[in-house]
Write a structure and sequence with these properties.
By secondary structure, this protein is mainly alpha-helical. It is built from 4 helices and 2 strands, in the order ββαααα. The chain has a two-stranded antiparallel sheet with strand order 1-2.
């Protein structure tokens, strides 16, 4: 594996110049992230999720972005699909 090098704007890149993806934690979803993912998987938008959980739109968005990073996906659909495959907090937890 080629050595990592720092390249412009602090981005890490591999030996081929491609950006390396960062995972900020162990990959375990927090309770808030898991709940946001469950509601998103049920088809709800960020604003509805935020209202339902009593959090700001920005907090809901941040939870979802953290889910993307932890699951190493780039899209909402990717997070839902991988969450379903892994069973990550998408099991029925009562009425939505």
């Amino acid at each position: 594996m080629p050595p990592r090098r720092r390249c412009g704007r602090g981005r890490d890149r591999d030996g081929n110049g491609a950006p390396l993806r960062r995972i900020r934690s162990s990959g375990a979803l927090t309770d808030g992230e898991a709940e946001v993912l469950r509601l998103v998987a049920a088809g709800h938008g960020n604003k509805w999720v935020a209202h339902r959980l009593g959090i700001s739109d920005n907090t809901a968005r941040h939870h979802l972005e953290s889910v993307y990073a932890k699951l190493d996906v780039r899209t909402r659909t990717g997070a839902i699909m991988l969450g379903l495959e892994r069973g990550a907090a998408l099991a029925d937890q009562g009425p939505m």
